[in-house]
Design a protein that fits this description.
The chain is of the alpha+beta class and 989 residues long. It is 41% helix and 26% strand. It folds into 6 domains: 130 residues, 2-Layer Sandwich (Beta-Lactamase); 118 residues, 2-Layer Sandwich (Beta-Lactamase), CATH 3.30.450.20; 96 residues, PAS domain (Beta-Lactamase); 110 residues, Beta-Lactamase, CATH 3.30.450.20; 161 residues, Alpha-Beta Plaits (2-Layer Sandwich); 244 residues, TIM Barrel (Alpha-Beta Barrel). A hairpin with a 5-residue loop joins strand 20 and strand 21. The termini are far apart.
Length: 989
């Protein structure tokens, strides 16, 4: 067979020159990953281990037990991981002969390695397979292991043996044919050769003895012409008939059935003898070659089997023969050569250079060098190289072969070439991913960690700062707790482990760590558990982050959110939270508690005289003295300004005793705060007013308790200050009534329950010159509610703003209605404006917009202001009044004389009118003082060129007195009560 393949490579082959320096022999396949780099049960290179194209198995030395196998080993042997792990190969029947195993592994126990050892192993299905083995001995954590790489070479072995058998059979066939030819040459009678002759004038064929013996016809010498065709196999008749027609001596092979029924193969040549254009005779020479055919067919079947095996094997199976002079041929290549090198098997046989031309130029030298080294040492060849095909990207190949020294001095390599591009790309991606991970972890402020199933650190990566903080070298092999973790209780840690075992990832698990220098840091970790193929927990990995700064910020935020920045006491939010807990605890245990609302007397005077910084010093000292007056279980809080609250807990189950204890603490606070305060160079006395209320169970809400204590504190102030008062139910009733009034006011605005009454303003002749608009509330249940009841509540709650706006809109609408009639178009409309309403930043804008939208004449609108408006922001008041007066709006100072009005202020205000309060008008005839005040106001108005309206005129005597002293305008019951517009007496048309 070798000769057959050799003869196919007819052209002379180029010589691969051997390198000048002898190259070291290859030592066989090397493990891709040292096991000590990733540990026994997994690790950084677990992915490579699992996805290796070669079967890998890890065996413990002391008991020969298999501790890990990869997916390729499972595919090769048919055993599952569960069937393999924890058992020995001998127990499984995988390795039949223990003595053979010891002999193969003997080098490992002498410090060596097992390199390319071919052994026969029995798979799970009972079939033996030839496996090429490489093995080395490694140590991990004090334990010795054997790491084995296995590759199935059964197909290689079968192909090699088939090639040898075919070559031997071919050589035997050639010898046999040579002998037959020689025998035929000696005598026809001794050879399986015969002939026949047919003459034109005969119907029979003359056959020789040799032909008769071939056909099993004994000594027969004649054969009917039709008999020759009748004994042929029908499938072969067409080609014999064609040969008989041609009679050109071309060889034809066909099957012939002998007279005894035996089927034989014959080879024939047919001739025609012609003389002077006339057929003289036709003859045929026949030879039986049944034995030769069977040998040839057997060889072809073997070759077909080889091609079938090699075509299904991954990659390329080949034989490569090389001589010391550099000549080389490919005695055999499988069909895979087309896929890998882009050349056909025929091209490889005829031109082996074409195969090497496909190797990447940068790798050609490596392939040649390693081949010469393997040839010189007759050692296994293994090499990784790239192959390039036109228009396609380079692909990585792995070549493996075993060399055999031949009698002629050549070396025959029998092996395979496998495409490992996918593995190379996977490894490159893995390495790139690992490099990216290391780069990112080195740049990131976070760190990466891994722990085993016992929660011991096996890896910690991070930047220099993180590593320095974590003391990573010292932490390896230790648990978190052994390496300085704090702040996680047993129950929390148990819940965390349960979360891991439930295959759940986790985020922001926080704990403290003790650093090398003894300081503390807060760490937040996030990660996920790791499980093996059987679902067994192997550990977990994740990231960590230093959150100390965030924790400090959160603590500061909490301090700012729940504690007073000046005194450090709990603020209102913290007090409410603690009060809610105290009320709940009171309900559980049945104990009373008390709430003390403390306000410093005359604190505003201190701020105004000595400055706010002195006020802050006083508040800090007050806070300190309050804390000294209570127990640890009690709470002292600052609500803001000079208001403090003390919450007393666990005062007993009896209300009287609880009240007594609360009173005792309150008196202790009074005594402490009445002591002299030293504020810098100033000595100051201060006093508190204290309101006290008790709480028990869930009788009242937290807000209600604070309101009660606040009301009690105001009762203490009303009692003369520097004292204490307990909450009074009557005071609560008044507050409740005020709250109910507020709710009704809001509903009244929504339901449009308000209306305007009008009271006439007359001149000295009694003619109506205008009206004052007075707000009235027609409540659906209470009836007509007097303004004195709901206006103060509206002022306190801020509802005076929407009410005042409604009054202005209604008044302007009435002015517009009157302007349409000649007898009412000159009437003026006076509207009371509260100080709160007037001081609103958008008051002027609202008035201007209202006048523009309603169309009311601004010269008919008069706004009545009270003297209290002049006590603050006087310049701003002047600006607003001047702005509105510039468009015609008039101003009147209401209830003049009841407050405090500086004459300098009056001179600067753009007023049009003063209104004498009815309290002076009522007694002008009986009280000389009131009479003197009324005359003074009238004289002052004349000097300032201001008009005057006297309010509350109820008798003719009052009118005459005022008229006699120069008053020209009046308003009061004497001229008419406030009435709806329908009942108002207006000038006649």
């Amino acid at each position: 067979m070798m000769g057959l393949f050799t003869t196919l490579a007819s052209p002379p082959l180029p010589v691969l020159h051997q390198p000048e320096q002898p190259q070291p022999a290859l030592t066989g396949a090397q493990p891709a990953v040292p096991v000590v780099a990733w540990g026994v049960a997994g690790g950084m290179f677990k992915t490579i281990f699992d996805h290796s194209p070669e079967a890998i198995v890890l065996t413990r030395v002391r008991d020969e037990v298999l501790v890990e196998v990869n997916a390729e080993w499972v595919h090769l042997t048919g055993y599952s991981r569960e069937e393999a792990l924890g058992r020995t190969a001998v127990d499984m029947g995988h390795w039949l002969d223990p003595e053979e195993r010891k002999q193969v592994f003997a080098p490992l126990y002498q410090g060596g390695r097992v390199v390319d050892a071919d052994v026969t192993l029995v798979m799970k299905d009972g079939n033996p397979r030839v496996v090429r083995m490489n093995a080395t001995r490694v140590h991990e954590q004090g334990e010795a292991y054997i790491l084995l790489y296995l590759r199935d070479v059964t197909a290689d072995r079968l192909a090699h043996e088939a090639l040898r058998a075919g070559e031997q059979a071919l050589e035997q066939t050639n010898d046999k044919l040579n002998r037959q030819i020689k025998l035929y040459e000696l005598t026809e009678s001794l050879a399986k050769v015969g002939h026949w002759v047919a003459y034109p004038d005969t119907t029979d064929l003359m056959i020789s003895r040799g032909a008769a013996r071939i056909g099993g016809m004994g000594e027969q010498t004649r054969l009917p012409r039709g008999q020759l065709m009748a004994d042929l196999v029908p499938e072969d008749r067409p080609q014999v008939e064609q040969a008989l027609k041609r009679m050109d001596g071309e060889v034809v092979e066909y099957r012939w059935r002998r007279s005894d029924g035996q089927m034989i193969w014959v080879r024939a040549r047919f001739y025609r003898q012609i003389k002077e254009g006339v057929i003289q005779a036709e003859m045929g020479v026949i030879q039986e070659f049944t034995d030769e055919y069977q040998v040839r067919q057997s060889l072809e079947n073997q070759l077909a089997f080889i091609h079938k095996i090699t075509s299904r094997a991954p990659g390329l199976v080949y034989e490569y023969q090389m001589w010391p002079d550099g000549k080389y041929v490919f005695p055999f290549v499988s069909a895979g050569v087309q896929q890998i090198y882009g050349v056909s098997p025929e091209q490889a046989y005829a031109d082996p250079v074409s195969v090497f031309q496909r190797i990447h130029p940068d790798d050609t030298g490596l392939v040649i060098k390693s081949t010469w080294a393997a040839m010189g040492a007759v050692q296994p060849w293994r090499c990784e190289f790239r192959v390039g095909r036109l228009g396609e990207p380079d692909r990585w190949m792995l070549g493996n072969s075993l060399p055999e020294l031949q009698p002629d001095g050549s070396v025959l390599f029998c092996g395979s070439i496998t495409d490992i591009t996918a593995q190379k790309e996977a490894l490159a991606r893995l390495q790139a991913s690992e490099e990216r991970f290391r780069s990112l972890s080195a740049l990131s402020s976070d760190w990466y960690w891994e722990q085993d199933a016992e929660f011991r650190f096996v890896r910690i990566d991070g930047n220099g700062l993180s590593s320095a903080k974590l003391a990573s070298e010292a932490a390896i092999g230790k648990t978190r707790w052994e390496s300085g973790a704090l702040g996680v209780g047993p129950a929390q840690w148990a819940a965390h482990k349960a979360q891991l075992l439930a295959h759940e990832t986790f985020h922001d698990f926080e704990m403290q760590r003790v650093l090398k220098d003894g300081t503390y840091m807060w760490a937040s970790i996030s990660g996920a558990p790791i499980f093996d193929a059987d679902g067994v927990f192997c550990g977990y990995r994740g990231t960590g982050r230093d959150i100390s700064a965030r924790k400090q910020a959160e603590a500061e935020i909490e301090r700012l959110a729940f504690f007073d920045s000046l005194t450090g006491l709990p603020n209102r939010r913290m007090l409410i939270d603690r009060l809610e807990h105290a009320v709940a605890a009171s309900a559980r245990h049945g104990h009373h508690g008390a709430l003390l609302f403390i306000d410093l007397d005359n604190f505003k005077i201190l701020n105004d005289t000595l400055g706010h910084h002195m006020g802050d010093l006083l508040l800090e000292q007050v806070a300190s003295r309050l804390q000294a007056c209570v127990r640890d279980v009690d709470t002292v809080a600052r609500l803001g300004g000079d208001e403090f609250v003390v919450m007393l807990e666990e005062l007993g189950a009896v209300a009287a005793e609880a009240a007594s204890q609360a009173e005792m603490v309150s008196k202790k606070i009074l005594q402490a705060l009445n002591q002299q305060f030293t504020l810098g160079s100033h000595q100051l006395h201060s006093s508190p007013s204290i309101g006290v209320t008790l709480f028990h169970q869930h009788t009242h809400s937290v807000d209600e308790l604070l309101k009660r204590a606040d009301l009690a504190m105001y009762q203490a102030k009303a009692a003369g200050r520097n004292t204490l008062r307990f909450f009074d139910p009557e005071m609560q009733a008044a507050a409740s009534a005020r709250a109910a009034m507020e709710a009704d006011l809001r509903q009244g605005l929504l339901r449009n329950e308000f209306m305007l009454y009008y009271q006439r303003v007359v001149d000295d002749q009694g003619h109506t010159t205008g009206v004052e608009a007075l707000l009235r509330w027609r409540h659906p249940e209470r009836g007509l509610v007097p303004p004195g009841e709901f206006i103060p509540v509206a002022e306190q709650t801020g509802l005076i703003l929407p009410l005042g706006q409604w009054v202005l809109e209604a008044a302007c609408a009435q002015l517009v209605a009157w302007s349409a009639k000649p007898h009412t178009q000159k009437l003026t409309m006076a509207v009371n404006v509260s100080a709160r309403q007037f001081k609103h930043p958008d008051f002027s804008h609202h008035i201007l917009s209202l006048l523009r939208l309603s169309g009311a004449n601004p010269y008919r609108l008069k706004l009545e202001l009270t003297e209290s408006l002049l006590l603050s922001d006087f310049d701003e008041v002047i600006v607003k009044m001047s702005e509105l007066r510039s468009i015609g709006v008039g101003f009147s100072l209401d209830d003049f004389g009841t407050g405090y009005s500086s004459l300098a202020y009056l001179k600067r205000l753009p007023l049009d009118q003063l209104k004498i309060d009815q309290s002076f008008v009522r007694d002008v005839l009986t009280d000389p003082n009131d009479a003197a005040i009324a005359r003074t106001i009238l004289n002052l108005a004349r000097s300032l060129d201001l008009g005057v309206v006297a309010e509350g005129v109820e008798t003719a005597g009052q009118r005459d007195f005022l008229l006699h002293n120069g008053c020209k305008a009046f308003q009061g019951y004497f001229f008419g009560r406030p009435v709806p517009v329908e009942q108002l007496e207006l000038p006649a048309p």
